Amino acid sequence: MRQVYLDYSATTPVKEDVLKEMIPYFTEKFGNPSSLYTIGAASREAIEKARGQVAKLIHAQEKEIFFTSTGTEADNWAVFGIVDALKNKGNHIITTKIEHHALLHTCDFLEKHGYDVTYLDVEPDGRVNPETLKAAITDKTILISIMFVNNEVGTIQPIKELAAIAKEHGIVFHTDAVQALGNVPIDVKDLGVDLMSVSSHKIYGPKGVGALYIRKGVQLSNFMHGGAQESKRRAGTENLPGIVGFGKAAELAYENLDAHIKKISELRDYFVDQVMSKIENVTLNGSKEFRHPGNANLTFEYIEGEAMLLYLDMRGIAVSTGSACSSASLVPSHVLSALGIPVERIHGSLRFTIGDPTTKEDLDYVVEELIEVVNKLRSISSVSQAKGW
Ligand SMILES: *Cc1c(COP(=O)(O)O)cnc(C)c1O
């Protein structure tokens, strides 16, 4: 049976060239980067090379990149680091209703500890209206954190405009750019952001490594305490092979950015077109114009997304009902809810995300199988409705 993976926003496979680069750092080049002898120095050099590769992809200075264990840790560090550094200035944080749980649950935790958090509404296409942000700012606001690209519906935020509002008010601006990295051009200087979270495993690098961009001059307390790694900003022996892999993945993403965007957006448009022309009562959620090039979040009316997911899985097709975190529960997606989509339609929604290895033949296979699965489930659901089940 054909296997088609269409969940590249959940994670990506490690590229062959990335793996090749990593392997020696598990074995002969295993030195602790903090050690003073030669093999330690070689490890240090490898980390500095990777720092340069990641910096280049987002147009940052090397010194502004700090490696972490995950994108989640980078998000936690940004929030807790600002909350601590600016505790004398205020206790109010502004974020949105559509953030990743790495940000939302961190803010929930702070709310339980006496902080004020405003969760901004978004427009029906998933974009934050700059006026909504302006209206939420108070003299106690110390941090604005708005994700660059949403992981469920793929909406791209007007980050430059939102960061400019923060700057006007002297407020630190953080963005979770985990989904943006390698999928949209990023220039931190042009965007005017202070802090940015990224992760390796969403760009064909290994899992368990991320980074926080900290603009030079931004005051941020440490989150991990211990040794002097990462210029004394992030303690803990570095994930050497992971960082080397992240660096290589960032280099490849930089070299292939335009071609990658063109390729996956064409495939995505083809897929959406095929599905919508061959299956009735399907709608595309999120923005058409400001969208992750590989994201198709579709609602299939009158059916359960979970049932579709399982039927597609039996046919070798991997898709998602939303974010990986909520896929184990039946709580409707907080992102689709924030877009104003009614609960019954949310339950009929699936996220297809296309990546580098995806082919047109893969998508043709998925469309064929989708037609069968949708027909089958809709016939069951119309029978159950007719019988009043
Ligand atoms: C995947 C993801 C994260 C978490 O990154 P990890 O490295 O898996 O911890 C954070 N934010 C967004 C938008 C993501 O897609």
Automatic annotation (TrEMBL):
InterPro entries: Aminotrans_V_dom (IPR000192), Aminotrans_V_PyrdxlP_BS (IPR020578), Cys_deSase_IscS (IPR010240), Cys_deSase_NifS_bac/arc (IPR017772), Cysteine_dSase (IPR016454), PyrdxlP-dep_Trfase (IPR015424), PyrdxlP-dep_Trfase_major (IPR015421), PyrdxlP-dep_Trfase_small (IPR015422). Residues 4-366 form the Aminotransferase class V domain. GO terms for cellular component: L-cysteine desulfurase complex. GO terms for molecular function: 2 iron, 2 sulfur cluster binding; cysteine desulfurase activity; metal ion binding; pyridoxal phosphate binding. It is an enzyme of class 2 (transferase). Coiled coil: none annotated. Its main location: cytoplasm. One of its GO terms (biological process) is [2Fe-2S] cluster assembly. It catalyses: (sulfur carrier)-H + L-cysteine = (sulfur carrier)-SH + L-alanine. Its EC number is 2.8.1.7. Its cofactor is pyridoxal 5'-phosphate. SUPFAM superfamilies: PLP-dependent transferases. Keywords: 2Fe-2S, Cytoplasm, Iron, Iron-sulfur, Metal-binding, Pyridoxal phosphate, Transferase. HAMAP family: Cys_desulf_IscS. Homodimer. Forms a heterotetramer with IscU, interacts with other sulfur acceptors. Belongs to the class-V pyridoxal-phosphate-dependent aminotransferase family. NifS/IscS subfamily. Master enzyme that delivers sulfur to a number of partners involved in Fe-S cluster assembly, tRNA modification or cofactor biosynthesis. Catalyzes the removal of elemental sulfur atoms from cysteine to produce alanine. Functions as a sulfur delivery protein for Fe-S cluster synthesis onto IscU, an Fe-S scaffold assembly protein, as well as other S acceptor proteins. This is Cysteine desulfurase IscS. It comes from Aminipila luticellarii.
